[in-house]
Hints:
Elements: H1 3-43, H2 49-72, H3 82-100, H4 121-131, H5 136-157, H6 167-170, H7 176-183, H8 191-236, H9 242-250, E1 258-269, H10 272-301, E2 304-310, E3 313-318, H11 327-344, E4 354-370, E5 373-379, H12 381-396, E6 400-403, E7 415-421, E8 430-435
Parallel strand pairs: 4-6
Antiparallel strand pairs: 1-3, 1-4, 2-3, 4-5, 6-8, 7-8
Helix pairs in contact: 1-2, 1-4, 1-8, 2-3, 3-4, 3-5, 4-5, 4-8, 5-8, 8-9, 10-11
Amino acid sequence: MSTQEIQARNIEETFLDAEQVGLRLAIKGRLIALLLIGSFMVLTRLGDLTHAFDLLVAAIGFSLLGIFHYRLIGSRFDRPWIKYIFVSIDIVILSYLIATQPLYDTVDVPQVIMFRNTVFPFYFVILGMAAFGLSHWLVLYTGFAGVIGWSGAFFWAIRDMPVRLQWTDIGFSPTTEHFISIFLSPNFVGYGSRVQESLLFLVTALLISVVIWRARQTVYRQLELDDERRTISEVFAQYVPRKIADSLIADRGLLEPVEREATVLFLDIAGFTALTERSGARQTVAILNDFFEQATTVISSHQGVVTQFIGDAVMATFNIPVEDEDHRKNAVKAATEILALAEQTTFAGEKLSVRIGLCTGPVVGGSVGGGGRQTYTVYGDTVNLASRLEALNKARGTTLLVSETTLPEDNRAGFRHAGEVEVRGFSESISVYALEGSG
């Protein structure tokens, strides 16, 4: 399966989850509406117990239907067409009640009188619940099905009427007496009113479906962009640290220059040339990949960011570009854990010895490059000194040298003063510390 197909499937699954949540919410709202409306209608008809009982049974039937649909959503029996079935059932039942149930059992008037009651808004309730499904097709279907149900109920109600009065019988300039005699007649059916109601319902359904369609397109595009961003971040993070990759993506490919105090870690593998000659190119790459992956994990776990891989060397920074108030302590912890890792672990079957230099001071970091290509790097004397300290390990027989700026006086447990050292490129000697028991 291609990346595009996987992306499309993931997005469709996201929409499906949203549709199911929306349908469940709609059914809950439907139950509440039935409870409120049913209670009102039953209470207002307590004088006609037979009619009240019929309304109560209808409300319970609608409720049970909703509960059954609720249980189906997301189950192994759920299918995309089931929601259309339940919408159809709601409309059929509502239309049947309107077409067959009289307002009062004691009054002998044509059933068309029901259409003068406030029953048409119930179709809008069904339309509103369909909108919760976030499917423009379901809303459109509900619109057409509602018009068919409403019109079908109307024509069924007037099927046996020998006299059918309508708006044209009133005329354009009727007298008051003539208007009242036609409009209030039990035989007034008002075809035009049914047409207007049907058109209003259909237009409302169309507008809602367009809104849902536009919303889905917007969300779909946003999900595509989010998925693309995750993909880019995952791929990009294979070449630069993930935190930098995420920042570069968020800042449209550019990390603005920042100057702040930071701790720089330089790490190098001892005897790398001999290792290369002994292992060969393919095995050397495997060894480096294994070691770099584990070392990077340690550095990242202490809020550090690997900014460069230079041959067999690693440069990492703490407090830049990601801020960290405890960058000194975290850098020291990372360095000592890497040394312990190298002591206790083999990498692609090979034991390694590493040397590390740490230095804290002002650092400038930012994106640099040209020709449309950018990379993140750091500059400053602090960077140079960390590199020099790493190299001094070889001459002094140590594995970790740390500048006094990285080790405040109250945090030097486990380290010994290694003296003042002259470092090439620096006018003054540097006070450094080494791990106890080394060198």
